[in-house]
Design brief:
By secondary structure, this protein is of the alpha/beta class. The chain is about 35% helix and about 20% strand. Strand 5, helix 2 and strand 6 form a beta-alpha-beta unit. The longest helix is centred in the last third of the chain and has 16 residues.
């Protein structure tokens, strides 16, 4: 594995981008019938969210993803350009539909059900990445989400290792987390939630069990990961590295929409680490970004800045 601090250069972000449709119930959900609630449409996808958060924090972000040749894909790319993300290497797939994510939230904002359709990401083939080897060589860090096919994930890790570029990864969901298992020893950072950590570790990691989350983070480090952050929603983050481990509680805040909060946490922590900020403070900044996103009706806070993150911590 590559045990090092990332050097200067852009962050190369590879993975999903799509449209989020999120509905929040106005009263307790009843199955088998229509429920009153509020719906909102925004742009999403783990990689896309991380890239936009990084760009809004002032980090050069270059996105490799795939969208359909439809109005949704075009609007998504326009939004990213306006936020400062380089989308030159996002693939537009003829005849395909842009990826989509559907979330149904409980009355209190908790996720009741999520469905995703990110099949267009399969257009990011190993050859597509090999043709862009120079992007890996020029980058300070590569970030991957697990929506990539196993073959494309393997090539992305291989290209990063060839050019001695650290790799950060997000397991994306419990159903996709296993795609990262073969690459743990080559990851500089990984940021699973409790359910995803349980897939990657031989441990039961129940919700809100800080000791188990810390054990999972330490186990991931024992497998070769430099930094592991296990997110626990309202119960904060358990994190570990070769130097030690710890837990930080979440910031208390109103929950308007939880979609994208974990991606904001990861992006802000990466931003901090890229700028030489110690791990514990980087996690605090990540928790601040998550709190800001939780009370934002969308996946990325449009006013995100380092000053605002520190203001929240005060």
């Amino acid at each position: 594995m590559i045990s090092q601090t990332p050097s200067e250069g852009p962050v190369l972000v590879i993975g999903s981008a799509g449209i989020d449709l999120v509905g929040r119930a106005s009263r307790p959900l009843q199955p088998g019938t229509s429920n009153p609630g509020r719906l909102r449409l925004s742009h999403g996808g783990v990689a896309r969210n991380v890239a936009e958060n990084l760009a809004r924090l002032g980090t050069e972000a270059l996105l490799i993803s795939a969208v359909g040749d439809d109005a949704q894909g075009s609007q998504l790319l326009d939004r990213l350009r306006s936020a400062g993300v380089n989308v030159e290497h996002v693939l537009t797939v003829p005849g395909a539909a842009t990826g989509a994510y559907l979330a149904v939230l409980e009355q209190d904002g908790g996720l009741h059900l999520g469905l995703d359709d990110m099949g267009v990401v399969a257009a990011l083939t190993p050859d597509y990445l090999r043709e862009r080897t120079d992007l890996f060589r020029q980058s300070a860090l590569v970030f991957l989400d697990a929506n990539l096919t196993p073959q494309t994930l393997a090539v992305a890790v291989q290209l990063a290792r060839r050019h001695r570029v650290p790799v950060a990864a997000d397991p994306t969901s419990a159903s996709l987390a296993g795609n990262l298992a073969p690459h743990l020893e080559h990851l500089w950072l990984i940021a699973p939630n409790e359910a995803e950590a349980a897939v990657l570790c031989p441990l039961d990691v129940p919700h809100a069990d800080v000791s188990r989350a810390l054990a999972a983070a330490r186990h991931l480090v024992s497998l070769g990961v430099d930094i592991a952050m296990v997110t626990m929603a309202e119960f904060g983050v358990g994190y570990a590295s070769a130097e030690g481990s710890g837990h930080l509680p979440a910031l208390r805040t109103e929950v308007v929409d939880p979609t994208g909060a974990g991606d904001a946490l990861t992006a802000a922590a990466l931003f901090a680490l890229l700028n030489g900020i110690p791990l514990d403070e980087a996690v605090r900044l990540g928790l601040s970004a998550a709190a800001l996103t939780l009370r934002t009706p969308g996946t990325v806070a449009p006013d995100l800045s380092l000053e605002l993150l520190y203001d929240q911590l005060r």
